[in-house]
Design goal:
single chain, about 190 residues, alpha+beta, 434 Repressor (Amino-terminal Domain), Umud Fragment, subunit A, seven-stranded antiparallel sheet, Lambda_DNA-bd_dom_sf, Cro/C1-type_HTH, HTH cro/C1-type domain-containing protein
């Protein structure tokens, strides 16, 4: 059986992706987890063994997980040094303390165990107002009456938002859209 040899151009693009990831101080596992991908899956892109790395949508997805852009990836590919991150949006890592807030983001401290073990009391969540959450991502729901709920987003439709975490992660809640002033994605968690 012949051995797989990646295309040299794909390999160079994968190496540029690896340089961008390292500049952000992330492991392959940390970068992959931001996309619900394993470290091995991320490593396949960096080694040029996963197809699609030249596709713009794939590049946006991968560089977005690194709080970067496909343009930054192209600059590295062209020989420029990786630029430091301009935002901490989506950054989460145990043992590191990120003080800077992403532009326009807000913080909220978890006060109960409704989201345990995802977020224990004392965890500070950083969220981006108006940024739609992905399924399984934490979200902050600002209600029309002024109340604020922190939940795990599952899905939404024209009439309702479906979330988990009202007292336990296995408990589902359906919230009428007319009661929601704003739905925002959690972009970072800070452990106490």
């Amino acid at each position: 059986m012949p051995r797989f040899v990646p295309d040299p151009e794909v390999l160079r693009l994968g190496e540029a992706l690896a340089a961008l990831r390292r500049e952000r101080g992330l492991s392959q596992a940390e970068a992959g987890s931001r996309l619900d991908m394993t470290s091995q899956g991320w490593g396949l892109y960096e080694s040029g063994r996963r197809p699609g790395l030249f596709r713009p949508d794939v590049q946006r997805r991968l560089t977005g997980a690194l709080d970067s852009t496909p343009e930054a990836l192209a600059l590295i590919l062209g020989g420029a040094a990786p630029e430091p991150p301009t935002s901490t949006a989506g950054v989460e890592s145990r043992g590191r303390d990120f003080e800077a807030l992403a532009t326009g983001s807000k913080r909220l401290e978890v006060r109960d165990d409704a989201l345990s073990p995802w977020a224990e009391p004392g965890v500070v969540l950083e969220y981006q107002p108006g940024l739609p959450p992905r399924p399984g991502q934490g979200c902050v729901i600002e209600m029309t009456g002024g109340a604020v709920r922190v939940r795990l987003f599952e899905r939404s439709d024209a009439n309702a938002i479906h979330v988990r975490g009202a007292g336990a992660l296995d408990r589902w809640e359906v919230i009428d859209r007319r009661e929601v002033a704003r739905l925002s994605a959690v972009i970072a968690r800070r452990e106490p």
